Amino acid sequence: xxxxxxxxxxxxxxxxxxxxxxxxxxxxxxxxxxxxxxxxxxxxxxxxxxxxxxxxxxxxxxxxxxxxxxxxxxxxxxxxxxxxxxxxxxxxxxxxxxxxxxxxxxxxxxxxxxxxxxxxxxxxxxxxxxxxxxxxxxxxxxxxxxxxxxxxxxxxxxxxxxxxxxxxxxxxxxxxxxxxxxxxxxxxxxxxxxxxxxxxxxxxxxxxxxxxxxxxxxxxxxxxxxxxxxxxxxxxxxxxxxxxxxxxxxxxxxxxxxxxxxxxxxxxxxxxxxxxxxxxxxxxxxxxxxxxxxxxxxxxxxxxxxxxxxxxxxxxxxxxxxxxxxxxxxxxxxxxxxxxxxxxxxxxxxxxxxxxxxxxxxxxxxxxxxxxx
Length: 373
What we know:
Layout: H1 16-29, H2 31-34, E1 55-59, H3 72-75, E2 81-85, E3 107-112, H4 116-119, H5 127-147, E4 151-157, H6 168-171, E5 181-184, E6 187-190, H7 191-212, E7 220-226, H8 229-232, E8 252-259, H9 276-294, E9 301-308, H10 316-329, E10 332-337, H11 350-354, H12 360-372
Parallel strand pairs: 1-2, 1-10, 2-3, 3-4, 4-7, 7-8, 8-9, 9-10
Antiparallel strand pairs: 5-6
Helix pairs in contact: 5-7, 9-10, 10-12
């Protein structure tokens, strides 16, 4: 095993020959091409994911709330899905997290923010160190899964790119601000092109680690979008296309879905999801996109956030049930709710639903776990 000059000993299958191949890949096809702009017809199929059931869960914040609030596992037994965040962007190997994010005992989805302007530029002096640190992080996730610390690890970066990261003072330096262009190694790229290429690179890193360590569970890679599918995965405007197309399929495709009432006086910009048919209509558009981008009849679909605010308490339980049924019927694999520590514009806290006089939301979650978990 050869060392990368100045970088110490690399992981198996990730040394100088690997980095050279990555440079050749990025230079040979170009960053824009690496984003995956072609969309051939469906080429293969996979088993219907509903056979496995839905992994129901939550984002990491309220996984284990302070007493006396009832914790998630005891309130909804068997619901073990969890998404954990490391939201601080990082540009160098030493700043990359060394521990794969994930709650003990969960089925883990991790979200991190590596600097695309480094990750897509083999000429950057921090490139080799960042790539090796990310591979070490992925290997840590695979190793933890092999020991049972958590299960079925999945990874994404810059979740909801195209919707979030609009603050230029914070995010422009990383090339992810919607509507902007950033020059990387002499090429001017839109934020959407940069993100597509970043997903391609991260999928490749996960595949490399899996190939070098066949005895370990693979860390699966995917992306997460939000809102209007046409604004997130446009087939006609590459600046509104944040998902790699079928030239570069991902392991899974995620979407954050929120209920927001459309009654009198509403300023909602969300789709109307007040019935199963409307949920099916919206999620059907996402499924079609994922089918085209993955080349699979039944691509793995994750809902990585879902909730409704306090004004829609009465609608939340049925919304959850409708969403779970659609996922079960259409290859969905994970349904992760989002209960923030402080109520947000589209969410309530976990304490709010646990302390309700009648636990309609908790009942709905238990019904989902019982029927589809």
